[in-house]
Amino acid sequence: MLFGGRKEDDDTVVAMLASAIRRDISFGVLPPDEKLKIEALRQAYGGSNHSMRETLRMLAAEGLVEATSQRGFRVMSATQEDLEDILLMRLQAEKLGLKRSMIRGDVAWESKVVAVFHTLSRAEAAVIAQPDDVTALEWDEACRAVSETLLSACGSRRLIQMAGKFYNQSRRFRLALLREGRIDFSARAQRLEKLQKAVLGRDENSALRLLEDDIRADLGARQETA
């Protein structure tokens, strides 16, 4: 295809820029409501005016950046209302995805579940022992991989994409808890062990309840009472 290589190069640059800015939003380097000026972002991250604008449009579609009425961009807010709304959507998407995966998942999916939980346990041990930016990023990626794997057998690409979108919007809330030392890793390990056991045992009620407990704890949200 004519000029196809240039388009692929542009897509690669945008993907790299999006990954870096997405990470810095999640880690609070770019705080909520901060104005995002193209030239300042180019100096910090590189890229052209065009690639940076395309990057911000991509992040706006993901709900991490908001286009303002003045045709600029800012980091999306992170209010309590935002947290509750993201929690609502994560619960709906991930519980539906896990339910479908438990019905459709085969032995290969079960093997991936075991492997990804093992990777997460190693990442949690590392971030507990030495909580720095490197271990925090590895832990955050391991958390995301668990969510993706649990939903990966659901049979709906759109559901997986939607769940991923709201998961990414929630990352900065979880990483804030990590920075503030407000994650009970002992309780978390017990909860995740039970979740893995319930998923592999195809115990739907327990798995969905434990997943909800974990998502709520993930965001520092209170458990609803009956």
Describe the protein.
The chain has 226 residues and is mostly helical. It has 2 domains: 4-75, Winged helix-like DNA-binding domain superfamily/Winged helix DNA-binding domain (Arc Repressor Mutant, subunit A); 80-218, GntR ligand-binding domain-like (Four Helix Bundle (Hemerythrin (Met), subunit A), Up-down Bundle), CATH 1.20.120. The chain is built from 9 helices and 3 strands; from the N terminus they run αβααββαααααα. It has helices at 4-26, 38-45, 49-61, 80-104, 107-129, 133-151, 157-179, 185-200, 204-218; strands at residues 35-36, 65-67, 73-75. Strands 1-3-2 form a 3-stranded antiparallel sheet. Helix 4 (80-104) packs across helix 7, helix 4 (80-104) runs antiparallel to helix 9 (204-218) and helix 5 packs antiparallel against helix 6. The longest helix has 25 residues, at 80-104.
Question: What descriptors fit this protein?
Answer:
about 75% helix; Four Helix Bundle (Hemerythrin (Met), subunit A); globular; 2 domains; disordered N terminus; 3-stranded antiparallel sheet; Arc Repressor Mutant, subunit A; 3 strands
What does the secondary structure layout of this molecule look like, with pairings?
Blueprint (H helix, E strand, L loop, with lengths): L3 H23 L8 E2 L1 H8 L3 H13 L3 E3 L5 E3 L4 H25 L2 H23 L3 H19 L5 H23 L5 H16 L3 H15 L8
Antiparallel strand pairs: 1-3, 2-3
Helix pairs in contact: 1-3, 4-7, 4-9, 5-6, 5-8, 6-7, 8-9
State the fourth-level CATH superfamily of the largest domain: GntR ligand-binding domain-like
Q: H/E series, N to C?
A: HEHHEEHHHHHH
Shape: globular
Give the neighbour order of strands across the main sheet.
1-3-2
Helix proportion? over 70%
* Rg from alpha-carbon coordinates: 19 Å
Structural class: mainly alpha
CATH 2nd-level architecture of the largest domain: Up-down Bundle
Strand content: under 5%
Number of helices: 9
Largest sheet entry = 3 strands, antiparallel
